[in-house]
Amino acid sequence: MLNLISIFLTFTQIPPPPVIERDYHATVENLRKTDEDANRDPINSVAALTAAIESLNSFTPELAQDPQSLALRQFARLNLARAHLLDGQPERAAAVMDEAIREAMGAQLPADKLGPSLAELYQDRLVALAAEGRASLVVTCDAPCRVYVDEREVGQDPPPLLLGRYRVWVEDVAGTRETLREELALTQADQTYELVFSALELPVAAPTEPSTKPPRIIPRWASLTLLAAGAAVMAAGGAAIGVGNKSEKVGGMVGGAVVLGIGGAALASGVVSLGVDAYRASHARGHQATLSWAVRF
């Protein structure tokens, strides 16, 4: 039985962001030129080719509707894997090939056009990724939405995906809500990952009014006076008991004991009143909580 892993992502009802001019065609042409440079000098073109490929990630809807540019990016990524192989970086070449395989969504890659070494790497990574298994992705929207995975429109319930990282783009069809852009890692085979993309009404926090301090049992100064007086009387009572004991006078000892008891009672009263007031104050502070909301886009 498939287990379900839910990831709740919310968006607010906000005005659309200002239009930002983005030159998609210039970005595609830059990738085309950089890919051609990589054919002539693969090792020295690694950084530029990597950046040119990643720059297309910001144009998800445009790229999804442009099969030729998708094919160009696919070939450029294979070219990048080949450059890493030529540079003696097989681990990086494998990582790039894995991403190319995931982006292809099951389609065959033309790795054989770039030499037998790359074709062999492609077959090896196909077997390795297949052995790891697949996971399912389900996107739930509370309004009509478009779902793209790795710049391909897949719908809200795409076929099971190979494990790994995917770029997920969810946009509101009406265009009135902020687009979700999320990088999602599918790490467990035979699991269903659910993205819940829904509107969230944020509560309006009421102004915080100054809290009323609870009344004290007795004034604080009186409690402190009881403490001081109680301590002093106890000291006097103790001294009287000591003197009576030395003189062996019973009356002096009894009087000292009485004074000692009175002082103890006063001291205890001061301690209790301060303790009760402190508890009331802390209890009142405990109810002055601030309601906060964390919303992730």
Automatic annotation (TrEMBL):
Q: Which domain of life is it from?
A: Bacteria
**Which segments cross the bilayer?**
221-241, 253-276
Record has Transmembrane as a keyword: yes
Ordered alphabetically, the record's keywords are: Membrane, Transmembrane, Transmembrane helix
In Swiss-Prot or TrEMBL terms, this protein is called: PEGA domain-containing protein
